[in-house]
Amino acid sequence: MSTLKIGRWTGNTITIAPTTTWSNPLGGTGTTEIRNDSSAYSWNSSSCQLLLPFSDLADGYLINASIEIIGAGGRQTTCTRWTQFLGTGNFASQPGQSYVRDGSNNNGFTNTWAFVDNPSGGSVFNLEWIRDTDSSFSSVGNVTIEVISLFYDDCAIFKASPTVMPGGIIPTSLTGFTEEKSATNVTLASDTFTIAHTTGKRYIALGGGFGSLESNSRTQRWTGLLVNGVIANEFKGYSYVRNLNNSFIGTTWSGLLRTIGSDVDLNIYSYRGNNTASGGGGADVDGSTVLTQGDFNFVLIELNDDTEVFRATNFSDTQPIAATGSTTCPVAANLNFNDATSFTITDNDNVNVVQDMDTLIMINASGASTNISSGLRGEVRMNVTLDGVEDTDLFDGNYIRGNQGGQDTFGWSGNLIGYVESNANQDLGLLATRTGNGHLFSLNSGWTSFNAINLDTMVPVTPPVTEKRYFIIS
C-alpha cells in the first residue's frame, strides 16, 4: 500500500527571462534536491518537468511552485502555471501572478498550485511562465518546487473561462463553471457549489483566478469564496493591474472547510474591494471588466475521517505591518476547529505541533491600506516560521500601490501553500517582511486564516494502481 511521499527542490541558475508566450523556465529551476522520499519522483531542473511514480500511486498529488522574480528597476508582471504534458488523470492548475514596480519595489512573488486526481503512472507535468509586454527582468531569487502525495475519500474539480471579471464594491459571483470531476457529496447548479451535510466532514479547498484584464486604468481585483452567500474574508486573494502593459490578474488561495448541521453553498466571486476608506482595501475604479485568457479553477478534496487538521483566523486582531523590517502576524486568535492530538494553540501568534509530523500549511493573509493619503508604494513578503525562525522555502508576497491622486488602489494579500517538517512541541507562525517601500497597511481582523493538516494521518483507502508508462525524452 502506498505511503506519504514528498518531494522538494530549491535553488536556481536561471539566466533567461520569461517571454510573452507560455514556456518552460530554462537554465535551471529547483536545482537542489532537498527531499525525495524513496526517490519516488524525478524533477528535471533544466526542462522544468516533474515525473510521478510509475506504480504504487497515491489517490492524487498536490504540486506547488513558488518563484521570486527580481526586477531590473522597471515594471513587469510574471505569471506561472502547471500543465500536464504526459499521462491521464483529473487535472487542474491555478496560475499565479507577480508584479515588480521599480528599483524600490523590485521583488515579485508568484505561486501556482496544481492538483491531479487518479493520475496514470509516470505522468509528466510542466512548469511554465509568461510575462506581459513590459520587460524588467534581472534574475530569479528563491525558488521552491514541491510535490505531495495525498490520500482522501473523494474530490470534485470545477473550471471556468470567464470573459468578464466584475469589479464594483459588492462581490459578484462568477458564472460559466463546468464540472470536470464529480464527487458524491458535492454538486454544481447555477454556478453554486453545494457540499451535502455530513457531520464533521473536512475539505481542502483550492481556488483562484487568472486572466488578462483589458484595462488601461490602475485597478485591482479580489477573488475568493462566498459561503452561504456571505464573503469569507479568510478565503481570498488580491492582484494589482497597472495598465494594458501590466494587465495580468492572478490570485491563488487555499484552506479548509467543514460541514456542520446543514448543506454549505459556495460561490466564487470577483470585485475591486469594499471601499477606499482606511482599512477598506478597495480601489477607486473598475477599469475594464473585459477578461481574456480567463482561467478559474476550484477543487474540493474530501478528507478521510482519520486525517487530523487545524484551522484558525486572526478573528479579533488587526495587525499593522511595520514600515521597515519584519512583523509577527497573529494567526490563531480564533480557533475554528482542530484535532488536538496534532495541533493546539500556543497564543495568538503561534500554532503548536503536538507530535512529529509533515505538516501541510495553507495561509491566506489579506490587508488594506491604513494611510490612504500616502502615495508611497509598498512590497511585503511573508514566510512561515518554526519556533520563530523563518522558513525561506515557504513564502509568498505582494505589492500595494496606495494613493495616486486618482485610480488609487489599497489592497494586499499573501497566499501560500506548502509543507514543513515539524517536530513535537514546535510552534508554527507567520512573519511579514518588507522587501520594498513602506506604505502602511494592516492585516484586517478576520482576513487571515491558518490551515494545517497532519499529512502522516492521511490513510490510504484504495490499493495502488499501476498504469501505462510515459518517459521524458530529452
Describe the protein.
With 474 residues, this protein is an all-beta fold. The chain folds into 3 domains: 6-150, Sandwich (Jelly Rolls), CATH 2.60.120; 154-302, Jelly Rolls; 308-457, Sandwich (Jelly Rolls). The chain is 0% helix and 57% strand. The strands form 6 sheets. The chain has a 6-stranded antiparallel β-sheet, with no helix packed on it. Strands 12, 14, 17, 20, 22 and 23 form a 6-stranded antiparallel β-sheet that branches. Strands 13, 15, 16, 18, 19 and 21 form a 6-stranded antiparallel β-sheet that branches. Strand 31 (378-386) and strand 32 (389-400) form a beta hairpin. The two termini are 32 Å apart. The model has no long low-confidence stretch (mean pLDDT 94).
Q: Could you provide a short overview of the structure?
A:
With about 475 residues, the protein is mainly beta. The protein contains no helices and 35 strands.
CATH class of the largest domain: Mainly Beta
Q: Sheet with the most strands?
A: 6 strands, antiparallel
Helix content: under 10%
Structural class: mainly beta
What does the secondary structure layout of this molecule look like, with pairings?
Layout lengths: L5 E7 L16 E8 L5 E3 L4 E3 L8 E12 L4 E11 L3 E5 L1 E5 L6 E11 L6 E8 L5 E14 L3 E7 L11 E2 L4 E4 L4 E4 L2 E4 L6 E12 L5 E9 L2 E12 L6 E11 L5 E8 L19 E2 L3 E7 L5 E6 L5 E3 L4 E4 L4 E5 L4 E5 L2 E4 L3 E13 L8 E9 L2 E12 L10 E12 L3 E13 L2 E14 L20
Antiparallel strand pairs: 1-2, 1-11, 3-4, 4-10, 5-9, 5-11, 6-8, 6-10, 7-9, 12-14, 12-23, 13-21, 15-16, 16-21, 17-20, 17-22, 17-23, 18-19, 18-21, 24-27, 24-35, 25-35, 26-34, 28-29, 29-34, 30-33, 30-35, 31-32, 31-34
